[in-house]
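Late entry, adenosine-5'-diphosphate complex.
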Amino acid sequence: MSYDTGVEQTLVLLKPDAVARGLVGRVLTRFEQALLKIVAAKMVWMDADLARHHYFDLEDRFGTAVYTAMAEFMESGPVIALVLEGVEAVACTRKIVGSTYPDQAEPGTIRGDFAHMSRAYANERGIAVANLVHASGNAEEAQREIEVWFAKDEIFEYPTAAERYLR
Ligand code: ADP
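Prediction complete; structure with ligand written out below:
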C-alpha cells in the first residue's frame, strides 16, 4: 500500500476570537496530538476582499445579515491560517473542530470545549457565531480555500518524526 493513500490537505483558520482569547497554543495542540501535520501557517488580518473570497457562498446560504456579521467578525482582528496534512485530513479536522454551533458541539471538540454560543443568541443580536475555528468542509472546498490563502511556495514538504507511525 502506498504511503500516500488517503493523505489530504485541509485549510484551517484560527478565527479572531481564538487569537484574542489566547487559545492558539491549545487549539494547535489538538491538531498536533492527532498527528495532523502543519505544512503552512501565517497570521493575516482579513480585509473585505479576502472575506468575500473565503466566504464566497455564505451570503447565498445564510443571507446578507449573517454575511455582514461574519465579515465584521472575521475582519475584527488577525487570524492564523494553516494547512494541515494527514490521512483523510478534511473529515478528521472537522471531527476535532466539532459542530458549527458551539452549544451543540460535543465535549472533547474545540468548539464544544472552548465556546458555548448558540445560533439563536447570535441571530438575536445580529452578530456572528464566534466558534473559534474554520475548517474546510470537503476536499473540493479544501483545494479552493488553500489556493485562496496560500501560494504554492508557502506550503512545505518535510518529514516529521511522527510520520513513521503512519507507514
Ligand atoms: P462551518 O464553519 O462549521 O463549516 P458554515 O460554513 O455553515 O459552518 O458557516 C460558516 C460560519 O458562519 C460558521 O462557522 C459561523 O461562524 C458563522 N455562522 C453560521 N451560521 C450563522 C448564523 N446563523 N448566524 C451567525 N453566524 C453564523
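The radius of gyration is 16 Å. Will revisit in the morning.
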